[in-house]
UniProtKB/TrEMBL annotation:
Stated name of the protein: Chromosome partitioning protein ParB
InterPro entries: ParB/Sulfiredoxin_sf, ParBc_2, UCP029669
Organism of derivation: Methylobacterium indicum
Pfam families named among the record's database cross-references: ParBc_2
Length: 205
């Protein structure tokens, strides 16, 4: 292997730690469906092309900084290990310093299912402990429907989720997701959403 090739680290999902508090369970379900469509012979290649970016934190624990939904979906599908790639080695830092650095680099999103910022000490310790934020599912579906463009801003879909949370009732999202998506589409094209990453402009006509 040449030095240019990435070193793949196969790590048990059970040992990975989240850097956010929630996922959208509908998003997880969609990714589970996608995994089931991958032929057995192609699954290792799929995992190799979907490496999970992590921080190496105190005690050399691996903290996931992206692809929480995919990791959760794979775990629910019975996949025990994934390939990870270390984005930053911060294992020499004390725990408090680690979280400060992660926060300033936008590698952590300590907001609960109601959009309330919490102490990093409340962060789930395991991928399987991530809670459900239905507005994160709504934001993901809104992006796929063309409501806003994919953006490199960290946690951009959580920003959209928080915006939608302020305008749509949680009960409406849970009771009639399709209607909630229609409402979200209207909101996404409004000037009220113009501050959000990937905003596509006001609706014409």
């Amino acid at each position: 292997m040449s030095v240019r090739d990435p070193i793949l680290h196969s790590v048990p999902i059970a040992e990975l730690r989240p850097t956010q508090m929630t996922v959208g369970y509908r998003e997880v379900a969609a990714k589970r469906k996608r995994w089931r469509e991958v032929a057995d012979k192609d699954r290792e290649a799929f995992l190799g092309s979907h490496m999970i970016p992590v921080l190496l934190g105190p005690k050399k624990r691996r903290y996931v900084i992206d692809h929480h939904h995919l990791t959760r979906a794979l775990q629910e599908e019975g996949v025990e290990s994934v390939f990870t790639t270390v984005v930053a080695d911060l294992h020499h830092l004390e725990k408090d310093a680690f979280w400060v650095v992660a926060d300033h680099r936008a590698w952590v999103h300590p907001y609960d299912a109601h959009g309330v910022r919490r102490d990093v000490g409340d962060m789930p310790k395991r991928i399987e402990d991530l809670g459900d934020d239905p507005f994160r599912s709504l934001a993901g579906e809104l992006r796929r429907a063309g409501g806003f463009a994919k953006d490199t801003t960290p946690f951009s879909e959580f920003l959209w989720a928080d915006f939608l949370r302020r305008h749509i009732k949680r009960k409406d999202v849970k009771d009639d997701f399709s209607d909630a998506l229609d409402e979200a589409m209207e909101l996404a094209r409004s000037k009220d959403a113009s501050y959000l990453p990937g905003w596509s402009g006001p609706h014409e006509g």
